[in-house]
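PT: before anyone asks, these are the final sequences, not the draft ones from last week. 640 residues across everything. Please model them as a single complex and drop the result in this thread when it's through.
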Amino acid sequence: MAFLHYLASKLGGAAISLVMVVFSAFFLFRILGGDPVDALTRDVPTTPQERAALREKLGLDKPLSLQFVDYLKGVLTGDLGESYQYQQSVTSLIAERLPATVLLTGSALVLAASLGLWIGARAGWRHGSRFDKIQVGVSLTLWSAPTFWLGMLVIMVFARYLGLFPINGMIAPRTPPGFWPQTLDILHHLVLPVLTMTAVVYAQYVLVMRSSILDEMGNDYLVTARAKGLRDVQVRNRHAVPNALLPTVTLVFLQLGNVVGGAILTETVFSWPGLGLLAYQALRIPDLPLLQGTFLFFSTSVILANTAADIVYRFLDPRVRHA
Amino acid sequence: MTTTPSGPSAPAEPGAQLASARAVVWQRRKAALAAFWRDYRRQRAGVIGLVGLVLIVGLAVTAPVISDESGLDVTQAPGERLEAPSSRFLLGTDETGRSILLLTLWGSRISLVVGVTATLLAMGIGTLVGIAAGHFGGWFSGLLMRITDWFIVLPRLVLAIALAAVIGTRLPSITTVIIAIGITSWAGTARLIRAQTLAVEGRPYLERARALGAGHWHQMTRHVLPNVMPLVLASTTLEVASAVLAEATLAFLGFGDSGQVSWGTMLSRANSSGAITYGAWWYLLPPGFAILVVVLCFTLCGRALEAVFNPRLRGQI
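LR: through. Structure below.
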């Protein structure tokens, strides 16, 4: 019963957040954004008649409340309008670009989380040691470096000077068809962007995990575990780490927004054809429908991921599970 | 000849009392400051960060004195395109032949000004929302925290990009960037301030103030705010770090003022002018390192301040 209550409150909160995203997108792009007709006809001389026809076609001649109803219908049915620069529906553009982003962020997240949590736990466990100081220093430095700059450095060192990896893109045009050559070429292109994204995300994970471990350090159950005669590694891995993981998981999901930011920058620097590059291409014009579409998509996915994390958290933590 | 004139001395007395009361307050403040400095000095990383910041701010402020601004003008660029470092140009030249050293020096000004201004905006909003949410409670507080949580969860860069793209057509680009950063980075502070306000609200002296008839405004400005100020200070310092990063990021994505040099616009130009494939490491390293060092210094100072104000954290950082 308590769980159902919890579930309802979390889902309700997520629903409110999603409604706020939908409203704010309308406010940002339709009210603050100015007249789309101006943006569409900027470089083309148009007569007032043509402008009026365009307004009617886009539904801009209706009162704002009716425009909002149209917009709402569009969002609910997955129709996010048409991109100015691609002359293609925003939904289909997002669907085309999604796999590349999932591949990049997915690999970077798995790498960063496993490496970051592992090192963070060890650094926190031996806090004050040289290992700890070096890890904290490295993490703070990586955290302070701009993502796009790291990417540019990585390109210069590994692609320009060492020539080990391609400079940008996802697949070379001359790659022979067939599953294996194509896959290998994509993986070859994937290495540098993943390295860049991992470096940035990893730093946050180390610092979060380290401070969670430090919070657990003084607790009685660790004394008990030691008194049982467990070795230090066992005390850490079987008692301290599981407890420290819980707050870490929450924080990691709260920082998902930063991961999205990192993806936009990494994809821009490496011309990785994903959603981040799409958002960048949209803001260069500015292509407002496309920008609105990526805004809606990114925000919705982050909110859904956070809600999922809240619910999974409930199952992970035995204290709240049985409450 | 009256040696002890009772007349003139009588009205002087309240003045003297006032002066001494003020002196007591000052003495107390001085002692608090000395104690704070003693604690801060123990944080070695914090001292390093502080020294770094003083140096960088000093260089940024004295840039017009120690260097010649005319070297920033593209039409008067003294060197060749993308010259490697030499004795004439210690850090080489950019794609228009300007000295990278000069650009990096002058770039600090925009980066710092935008970073600090955007932080002040964010801190203003965050403190206001946080104190209001902590003080008033009820549905109003619930609403404010709902909005705060929304801003925390949402991807900041995506929101900042959307905002900057939308308002950027009508405002100067520096104002755009400041507003975009300020509006997207107040939420963490608001949450922190609210928690601290709730803690302060429970203390007896606030009950006493309320019993004496203090209004909301008086309670907040005279009692709650001074108590949350230390936290605001620590959080401000950390926030400047991320605002400087955000400025560079937005400038890199093309929202910077192309007429003015900042570290972000330098990196943006390095990227678009093909300096990477040319192998011009001297164009890439200085602005990036400058950002890294400034952000790191602010972060170190912020963490040290947190450790001073929150003794529980001491020894952890």
